[in-house]
Design brief:
single chain, 115 residues, mainly alpha, Cytochrome Bc1 Complex, Chain D, domain 2, 6 helices, 63% helix, 0% strand, binds heme C
């Protein structure tokens, strides 16, 4: 019985390893779209991951983490609906564009906005 369970556990682990890149890594296409959306809609206020209106709410990894903004859902929600001086983008960007720009922001924050 335990041998069966061990085999099953290994099979599941291998399966998870195999599918992980599909959802863990944003594809190059999505990131390229996200970069375009960012440059056209966000860079005026957030160039290089900064924030020209409220410098303390920038897009650096540790700051996103501090404000609970270090997830796709949180960024998508704020871009869609806006917050204080940040405008809502739901009437200007498609869901796919908002998803892409959120992936781009997260990816850039993880890389220290060096690219
Ligand atoms: C007019 C300026 C402006 C534009 C354009 C703008 N933002 Fe913002 N953004 C802000 C401000 C101001 C805040 C801080 C909001 C608050 O009070 O929490 C903010 C906050 C954020 C945060 C949370 C940062 C944190 O540390 O809490 C994210 C993520 C973000 N913006 C992403 C974007 C993206 C992506 C776009 C483009 C689709 C965008 N913003 C466009 C002004 C802007």
């Amino acid at each position: 019985m335990s041998k069966v369970l061990a085999t099953l556990a290994i099979a599941i682990a291998l399966f998870l390893l195999m599918i992980r890149p599909v959802w863990a890594e944003a594809s190059a296409d999505v990131l390229a779209t996200g970069a375009n959306v960012f440059n056209a809609n966000c860079a005026a206020c957030h160039a290089n991951g900064n924030n020209v209106i409220n410098a303390s709410k920038n897009l650096k990894a540790e700051v996103l983490h501090q404000y609970g903004m270090d997830s796709l859902d949180a960024i998508i929600n704020q871009v869609t609906n806006g917050k204080s001086a940040m405008p809502a983008f739901k009437n200007r960007l498609s869901d796919a564009q908002i998803q892409a720009v959120a992936e781009y922001v997260l990816n850039q924050s993880e890389q220290g906005w060096k690219a």
